[in-house]
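Session log. Operator J.P. requested a structure for one protein chain; no other inputs attached. Running the standard single-chain path with C-alpha cell output.
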Amino acid sequence: MQSSGRRRAFKLAQDRWSATGVRLISVASKSSFVCSNCRRQSTVAASQSPSPAWSTHQKASAGTSLLSIDGHNYQTDSWTNVPPNIVSAIPRRLHLQSSHPIALTRELIESRFPSPIFKHYNNFSPIVTVAQNFDSLGFPEDHPGRSRTDTYYVNKDTCLRTHTSAHEADIFRADESVGYTISADVYRRDAIDRSHYPVFHQMEGARLWDRHEVSGGDIAKAVWADVERLPKHDLKVEDPNPTIHEERNPLQADFHSTEEVEAIAAHLKRSLEDVVVEIFSKTKEAALAAEDGKAEVDEPLRVRWIEAYFPWTSPSWELEVFWQGDWLELLGCGIVKQDLLNNSGVPSKLGWAWGIGLDRVAMLLHGIPDIRLFWSLDERFLSQFSSDKPVSRFVPFSKYPACYKDVAFWLRSSRSSAGGGIRSNAQDFHENDVMEIVRGVAGDLVEDVKLFDQFTHPQSGRKSFCYRINYRSLERTLTNTEVNKLHDAVRTELVEKIGVELR
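Structure written below.
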C-alpha cells in the first residue's frame, strides 16, 4: 500500500507530465522533486468502490442499459459517470480539424520529429480499458487518479483516457518505428475557469534504441552519434543538476548504465530544446506582426531543466521557459521505465519519452485568453487561423458582460441524521462533482466557478460551502432571465444529485 504522500506524488506527477501544459511559476519559485506546485491536488484517494456523490444517481438509470459513444454501444454499470455534454464533445477531435489552433500547434511540434524515425499517431479512440490507462503505466490500485471524482468511467473496466500515455505500452508492443508521437483528446473531471476544460489535448513522444541493433551493443556511442545530427541552437540553457541523483533522480541501475543515461538524456534535452525554439520563435513572429508585446519579442529566450518525478520515467525532468517575466512550465520528460518496455515485449530497447499540453501551448502561441474558445463554432474565431498563413494572434471580437451568481449549501456531517443517506456527508463530497453539475447545466456559458466561502458549524459539525458562478458567453450577451433559469437548474441539480441542503 502506498503512503498518502506517495499517492499524492503519483497524482501530481500525472498532472504535470502533460495535462498542465503551460503554467506560470513565480520567478523566485523552485520546483520540488514531488511536484509540490502542481495546478491541482486531489483531496481524496482513489476508492475501490464508486463515489457516493454520483453512484446513487447512476445506479437508478444504469442496470443493464447501454451508453452510446461515437457510434458504439457500451454496457453501463454503477461506475458509469460520463455525462451527455462529454459524450457530445468526443466526435469533435479538435486536434484533427484543419486550421484549428489545436491542430496547428500539433503540426508545429510534429515538424520537429520527422519521419521515418518518428511515426505520428493521431486517431486512437478515446475509449480505453482501465488496464491501458492505469495498470500498464504502474499506477497503484489506490492512486487518486483512478477515482470517479477525477476520471470519466464508461463502466468499471472502461474509461475515457485521462492521458495519451494510455496508448504507450501498445505502441511499444507494436514496434513499428524507433520513435513516435501521439496527439489526442483526453478527459478529466476538473475545475471551471479560463484555463481548464474537461476535454483537452495532449501530445507525447518517445525515442528508443535497441541493444541488438546498434554497433557492438554500445548504446551510449550510438546515441551520442545521433546527438551530433540534431539541430544546433543558441538558447541560454540552465541545467545545474547532475543527470542522475541517487535520491532525487535515480538511475534504473538494474537496467541502465550511467553512460547510457547521460547520452539518452542529452539527446532528449537537445530534441526538446529544439521544440522550444520552434514554438517561441513562431510566438515572437506572431507578436511582432500584431504589434503585441514588444518587450517579449526583444527578450532573449531562456530555458531551464528542473528535476522531477513521474511514475513511468526515471530520471525525470521538467522543462521551463522564461517568457514575459515569468517561468512557464512547458512539459515533462524522462528516461522510460524499463519495466514498461519489458512488459511490452521489447526488453532490449531503452530510451526517452515526453508529454506536453497542446491547449496551453496553443493559447500561448496564438494569444487566446479563454480555453472555451477552442470549442467555439463562431466564424469570427475560426476564420482567424489558417494552415496556409503564418502563425497569427487572436483578435478579440467582443467582450460580453459577466453575470455573477452565488450558490450556498450545507453538507451533512457524519454526526447529523438530517435528511438521511450518505451522499452529502462531508467525507464523500468532492468539488469536481459541483463542477460537473454546473457544466452539465450551463455548458460553455460559464466562464469560471470559484469557492467563495466555507466554514464548519461549531456545534453540529456540518460544513457549508458557497460557490460563485460567473456566467459569461463568448458570443453574446446573456439576459437576466436566461441566467436565472440556468442558476435555478444548477441549484436543483445540486440537491438531486449530491443531496446538499441549500442555504
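Operator note: The first strand starts at residue 23 and ends at 25.
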